[in-house]
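Q: Predict the bound structure with iron/sulfur cluster.
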Amino acid sequence: MVGVSFINPLSTEGREKVREQGSLENLIHDNPELIDVITRDPNQKISEDNEIPRNYLELALKRLEWYIKKKNDREFKHTKYSFLSNPQIEKFDLISFYLLSQAIGVKFGPNSRESRLMVESQGSLMEHRLEELNHRDRRELILKALQELIRQETVKWIFFGDLLSSRKIQLTDLVLDQGDVILDRDEFIMRFGHRLEHRNPEKMYQLLIGEEVQQLILIRMVMQETENYISNVHEKARMMVEPNPILLELAERLTDILREPTTSYGYSGGGGGFSKSGPLHREAFPPCVKSALEGIKSGGRNDAIVLFMTPFLSYARLCPDIFRQNVTVRVSDKDPNLQIVHHEILPMIYEAARNCHPPLFEDQPQEKVNINAKMGFGMHTTLKLENEGETKWYTPMSCEKIKLHLPHLCRPDQHCKKIGNPLSYYGLKSYILRQEQPKLGARNDSTPGDHQENKQDSRANNKDGDS
Ligand code: SF4
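A: Predicted complex:
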């Protein structure tokens, strides 16, 4: 049976095992036992010796690299990281979890992108590890880990206050009875069995709660605990004179790993030098965007600026091929320090707002808050990294929706026939311009294949954006 600490490093079992480890000093030296576990794993496929993590520090980095590549690299192969789901790696993995969390707490703090990625990666790794187990082991492990975290027979919904306020779970994920959260099968049958007419209570339990909801709550609770742990480390570190140099070294190497997607997997946080996103080209904007940039003279100013221009300009600049990448992204994945947002995207949105008649913010300054919210930064007057995730980064409206809600903006030209979303138009026109002006070549372009895919992409053509 796999130990609880394999999925919850912050469990009592996990903390005890870490205490036994003692000093941090031998963590940077090659560990033959760790190397042996990895190389003997029958599922493991690593082509180069230098890709094998040889000590705790390298294992910690691999933990996060796995998540970043899984999220961003279209050619990601889990078999290269199979060791991460091998239970034999548990004792090493445990230490690497604490090392990473401490390095992030010391150097970056709880509101950083590094902290968010660590928390997300822990959730993703738990999910992956649980999936790899057989059904019986998975069920036992989930129950054991949950029992330790909840420790009460009945739990009021308020017990999950942190998870609800950080939106890790929603009330609709839970089955409630008089304020109590029902997770246990017997409890469900006792409370609801007699009320369910013509339905099998057992089947209803499996349908409404079952292992799925238990797993979701377990994962989200451990993610929250990870976040709290990083926060505690950060608070303690502020009182320290000198943080441990091993943690600082790890934090530095971590920065390199997080920077890598900006150069290797097709996106960038900087001003260029990558394959898909780059500085905005007004000449590639579709007629509707050009028209909105000149300002809305009639009605619909708010929707045009907040719901249409904000998602369009932010995605066109940071993630123009979002409809082809079947992933959820945040602005900070593409622009870690929000430099592009503050210096390129917001100024262009504000320009469009200023050109409205009357200028949008003159009589409705609160719309700045809504613009921040549509980029995922919650309802705040200032756009800050620490608020990211409070709302969703809206994807651009489809042409169909624009024609319905903002018909005066849609003045189709010949390229519009080939696309279903202004963002696809932007990709297509960028490509055409590149062909016409080879000197533009290195900038913001797609390949002909991309356009074929854009054309065929059902998300882009048929599905509305979030707006
Ligand atoms: S068809 Fe689509 S891209 Fe073209 S102008 Fe209309 S809304 Fe914009």
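A: The two ends are 47 Å apart (CA to CA).
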